[in-house]
Request: fold
Amino acid sequence: MSILAIILVIISAFMHAGWNLLSKRQHPSSAFFLVASFTGALLLSPVLVIYWDTIAHGISFQVWLLVTMAGFFMALYYIALAGAYQAGDISIAYPIARSSPVIVVTIVTLFLGRGDQVSQLCIAGIILVVGGCFLVPLKKFNDLRLKNYFNTTCTLALLAAIGTSGYSLLDDEALRLLRTSPQMTMGNIGITLVYAFGESVMASIWLFFYVIASQKGRSEIKILLFLNKKNAVFAGLSIQVTYGIVLISMAFVNNVSYVVGFRQLSIPLGAALGILVLKEKRSPPKLVGVIIMFMGLILLALG
Reply:
């Protein structure tokens, strides 16, 4: 990874841990993330005016399909993350949701025949990150049994990880197509803004249909819009700025797995915020797991 990419991802990691803390404190729902996602789309809506001709005529059907699929996986991430935060501690759900995509993205990368872009040091770092992930939910070291991972918090956190893996891989492919297209004359930042806008819109659409499909969801969105939308709006602004930085950083790496991996710096930050700010329980396995994850991140950065 280049120095610029590392700096960008570090900034995004701090912001990511911050908006997740805010979300957890608000007992988030899918409606909360619908408002947040729609806010992000509104923030980027000026790109419609600035780049309208390119958006209307210069983006291929393949890219639109990838954006639609990425929006689905992003909506899945939000839905599962909200459920995980409702069911358990952020210091457990957050590390699992953030660390699991590393191994998923790397396996897919190797499967696609791009293994030469992933160094042995990077793979060693990924193994440490995932190994630490298995320690975080435990109260005692001798609790390392498969049945201890079959609970609502861990299951939904893993589902959120699937969402993250899906949209990260689709983002990488879509942005590569856009950046190599001769019709894209707006530069990397412009392309990133246009893509982020499209993805936010698609995620909002998927979330909208999910929320209105149930009476509970419709009630939650009404309450949120009329009584407590401020925090959801702020979370949406933070989410958009954070992921915009990540999308820009993808232009400065050879493989998306490096970005997905090093973003996990937010794992120790999120766990620390849960313990220090929300006063969640600290257990030896949780602390050791976070330390192991951080060591893996160092290897990822060096790789």
Q: What stands out?
A: The longest helix spans residues 152-179. The chain has 14 helices and no strands. The radius of gyration is 19 Å. The mean pLDDT is 82.
